[in-house]
Amino acid sequence: MTEIQNPILDVQGLEKHFGGITAIGGLDMRVGEGITGLIGPNGAGKTTFFNCVTGALTPDAGRVAFADGDITGKRPSAVAQEGLVRTFQIPRELPEMTVRENLQLAPRGQSGERLAQAWLRGDEFADDERRVREKAAEMAEFLEIDHVLDAKAGTLSGGQRKLLELARVLLTEPDMILLDEPLAGVNPTLEQKILDRIHDLESQGYSFLFIEHDIDVIMETCERVVVMHQGQVLTSGEPADVKSDDRVIEAYLGEEV
Amino acid sequence: MALADFFISLLTFVTIYSLFGLGLNVKFGFTGLIDFGHVAYFMIGAYVTVFVAMPAGLSETYEGLTGLGLATAFAGVPGGDLLGWLVALVIGMAAAALVSVLVGIPTIRLREDYLAITALGIATILNAIFHNERWLFNGAFGIREVHEPLSGAFPIGTGSFQLNLLLFGLPSVAILGYAAYRTAKVVRPLSVRPALLGTGATLALAGSVVFVITTMTGLVVDLGVFVLNVDNTIAFVLLVGSVVAGRAALTETDHIGALLALASALLFTLWYLGQPLVAFVTEGETADLLLNLFWLYDATAGSAGGLDYDRFFFLFTLAFLVGAYLWVERTVNSPYGRVLRAVREDESVPEALGKPTFRYKIQSLMFGSALAGAAGGLWAANIGFIDPTQFASTVTFFAYTAVIIGGTANNRGVILGTAVFWVINSGTRFLDDFFPSEYAQQLAALRLILIGALLIVILYYRPEGMLGEQDYDIDLGRGGVSDD
Amino acid sequence: MASAGLLDALLQGLITGMIIAAGALGLSLIYSIAEVPNFAHGDMITIGAYLALALNKPGAIPFVPEFGGLPLIAAGILGVAVAGSTGAIYEVAIFRRFRSKGADLITMVIVSLGLALVLRNVVLFLVGSGNINYDTERVTNTNVELYLTGNGLSVQTVQRQAGDLVTLGEWGYGWLSLLAIVALAAAVGIGVYRWRSDDASFETVHLVSPRIFGIASGITALAALATVLQGAPHTIDAAVWSTSVGVSIKYGVIIGLTLVTMLAMNLLLKGTKTGRAMRATADNMALAEIRGVNIDRVQLVVWVLAALLTALAGVLTGWFASNLNPNMGFSLLLPIFAAVIMGGITSPYGAVLASLIIGVSMDVGVFLLPAEFATYRTAIAFVILIGVLLVKPEGLWGDV
Question: Which residue intervals define the domain ABC transporter in the entry (chain A) (predicted)?
Fold first, then answer.
């Protein structure tokens, strides 16, 4: 097992129980720069892990550090403010708002988001909003959803929703993005498009932790893979090493690999 | 009461409740918070404003806390009582906002249905406290010593009859004219046939009502007993004709809104100007017609007439409503408002994108409650007497009905919905005159049955309300090119 | 002459709790199976009470033809039955339509609010806002006065007849028999509990849980022993402690009726095919539908049952308080919601238990607090609810 020297995300001894069921039991994980894949059979606790790291759930024990700051038990908004954001497995578009508004919502540090600024409107109010509009339009173009900008988000197709979800997260300009199955239920053409974009973004300096079921995709995309099983890290390392690991094969037995 | 006076009082009601509804719209329409305790902030605003303005020792029957007397504190300054009252109103709004924070901090994290019932409970308890604790604000006996700002200065007039008529009469006619112009713009897209059918249906309906109520005048009738005579037969025929024509009009056009506007405008004209017009045409009687047209001019105010306090107070509340409308518009047409709506749609999304949603919800609650508080202060000054029974939970439910009828998350819709609600609830009160007085309660109940049914029907057939959600545009000032 | 004390408040609270429970049971069904936070529930209670009134005292309602009126028992049963059909109307005319449109929780809240407005004003329209009561025999309270003396417990039953206090009966228990009664009753209770929980394997679904069976047997044993072991009364002049508990036939009828109703509901939910379909629907409506449950039928049953239960609560409230008014249901709405949320929305048994807790806290609270707080009876229920929600936002027993 290779160790990450300068982890961005450092999780130690994470535990989460639901009633008597242990979802995460003493999990240690270090995630560095680049694209890291997170795989594991159904019920391994991957999404619960995301929820605990991003503050949607409060862990029962353990410590979560991000970029050298302790974010354990912080509210999701505070975690996102630190530069760690996540997508949802089932895209959560804001249906009654336009795609444009969905995107414009995302950028961090908009001065007009403060009530006093919304009322008084200093100079930076208009400047900020112009910047936000430009960025949202650029992002829409980058992910090729600019033709639906003025549609209500509730009218989008499944694939477009996935892209919107990704676009929104990118617009927060985070340091690391947790992607919860961004390719689930996506057709092959769109899948390639999303993967291309993720590679583009990696070269721009974004880091990703990426839940995916398709091992082949993980092998092609990721520099490093972490395997979760029964609420713990089973192993991690180079994709090729992990794929040939007996324990991984055993954990996936009975499932399609 | 002259029709114009009734018209003014109805308008004042609509204005105050619209302000109350705007506050609810901030919470419910734009942020998605079901605050079933909205009336509590209306009550707090009313009581605190009255209490802060009220001088001590005005009355021997008042046994509550001694008023702070702000109404007389600035007596030396011209318009000092208005200034004192305004400060009192601001304090009332602040008190409402403050209480809403205290209520909100523990409850606002709850599921939406739990929030609804908890808020309803807290409002009920607060009302019970105001009702039972006489040491606080005189309990169930209420407060009669309500300061009415500037009431001493009215009625005002120039002393010259002609000048008064010009000064107050012309704006009245201008406002009616403008309303007619706006209505005409809405009605314009209607083609001739459906417009004629709609007019026919409305006139037939009105005629039917006229025939029914004229036969009932002075008669001791039992509800449910329908006497078959000439008038009633004509009424029945007209009613059937109205339904047939109305159906035909509805099937012939997609502009249902335009059709409704046309019918409403016709009904208003018949109600407000019908009888005076008949009097004018048949007897050359102009007094009623002029009084109704020049509704801002009160002939009984002083020797030469003028602007009485009720009319002034309507304009006063209208100014507050316009101010609040612009204030709410500014709030929702901003990145801040965008976050509020995101909270409404799915709270977890803005939270995951780094927006502290708890803070947004609390602020929304405070803002909406402060507006309810302002409405409360105006309410008290308008009525001149407050007691806890005026602030029952039904007031909250009425406001929800009004907001939903007009269009949730639409500030103009709130005003329209409030107008529709109060026209059904109070504007039809003139019909009471034609029934024996013991049926007044029944008729009031009947209206509310109608309103409850209307609420359900609107939610089913047109959940977005009459106007639907409003459009948003963030104004960037000079050089800002809007792309929305 | 003893004065009313904690024991009296406790019994009052139990009655209050029983009435709340009848409402809460219905609301928990609607809430969990129909997924409607039903704000019309209080007004459904009012409707039930007034339906019985229309049959019992037709003269009070202008639109009902005068036919002399039925005795309250018949009117109550018929009224509750008619109320059941109104439940079907609510479902078919309103809620089924909104369900098929996929209305969200907020919409359902507002729809039920609209229904509440209609129902309350239908009562105001037809009957008016005045207080009214059923045409039935007046029931006089009997005070059971307990005196603790040096020799044991002495009991007197006293009734006020034509302004005078009349002692109806007088008996006592020695210390020894008192001890024996309590010990034996406790032994019976615990014994039955042991026997019930031992005889079945872990998987067995008890129709009545062993704990409830045990408590019921204990109470029955207590009553039986207390009757059998009655002795001579002691002199009560030297009583060290005394208290008076007001009871009447109403208490027995209310406790009995609600208990029978709960038992029937229990039987329905656990023992019948419809009950299983209802529980499956509460669990997951989409899944239940896939498995062939007729959702529309289940929802219809739920609304009818809820309407029957609310009507029962309404008739009992009106009879117990000797007063009906258009607000009677609405004032019960808060305690009922409090009980349902506290008991966990999907747990009818939790709702019943929470109802009893809330009923008892309301009346005991009013007894313990200074007299000027008596008007805050409903507020007490609410303070408890808010307290529970602050500690456990998902309710006391959660959504199990």
Answer: 9-255
Domain ranges across chain C: 6-137+249-391, 142-247
ipTM of this predicted complex? 0.91
* Same domain, yes or no: A19 and A140: no
Residues of B in contact with A126 (CB under 8 A): 476-477, 479-480
C107 to chain B: which residues are within 8 Å by CB? Answer: 459, 463
For chain A, give the mean pLDDT.
88
State how far the alpha carbon of B278 is from the alpha carbons of B18, B270, B281, B282, C141, in Å: 34, 10, 5, 6, 68
Record the tokens describing residue A4, joined without a space.
Answer: 């990450």
CATH number at residue A88: 3.40.50.300
pLDDT value at position B229? 66
- A46, part of any domain: yes
**Structural domain boundaries enclosing A13:** 9-93+172-252
Distance CA C66, CA C55 (A): 10
pLDDT average, residue stretch C51-63: 87
Closest CB to B338 among A54, A104, A117: A104
- Classify C209 as helix, strand or coil: coil
b/e map C148-173, b = 16+ CB within 10 Å = bbebbbbbbebeeeeeeeeeeeebbb
Model pLDDT for residues C219-242, shown as the tens digit of each residue: 988 888 888 888 888 777 777 888
Specify whether A113 is located in the same domain as A61: no
Q: Are residues A113 and A232 in the same domain?
A: no
Q: Are strands A207-211 and A35-39 parallel, antiparallel or unpaired?
A: parallel
pLDDT (0 to 100) of residue B151: 86
- CA distance readout (Å), B201 to B204, B256, B266, B420: 5, 14, 11, 20
Q: Chain A contact for B357, CB < 8 A?
A: yes
Predicted confidence at residue B404, as pLDDT, reads 94
CB contacts of A115 in chain B (<8 Å) are 331, 336, 363, 367
The residue type of C56 is: N
Instruction: Return the amino acid letter for A87.
Output: T
Query: Is A3 inside a domain boundary?
Result: no
- The DSSP result for C9-37, as a single string, is HHHHHHHHHHHHHHHHHHHHHIIIII---
| C214, C189 contact by CB (below 8 A) | yes
Angle of CA points C28, C29, C32, to nearest 5° = 80
Check CB contact of B323 with chain A, cutoff 8 Å. Answer: no
Q: Does A101 touch chain B (CB under 8 A)?
A: yes
CATH of C6-137+249-391, one of 3.30.1910, 3.30.1960, 3.30.310, 1.10.3470: 1.10.3470
pLDDT of B224 reads 45
A223 and A245 housed in the same domain: yes
Quick one: A212 and A105 in the same domain? Answer: no
CA dist., res. C245 & res. C263, Å (int): 27
Looking at this protein, which amino acid is placed at residue B474? I
Return the domain boundaries, chain B.
3-154+308-391, 161-293
Euclidean distance between the first and the last CA atom of chain A, given in angstroms as a whole number? 21
Whether chain C has a CB inside 8 Å of the CB on B446: the answer is yes
Q: What is the mean pLDDT of residues A130-134?
A: 94
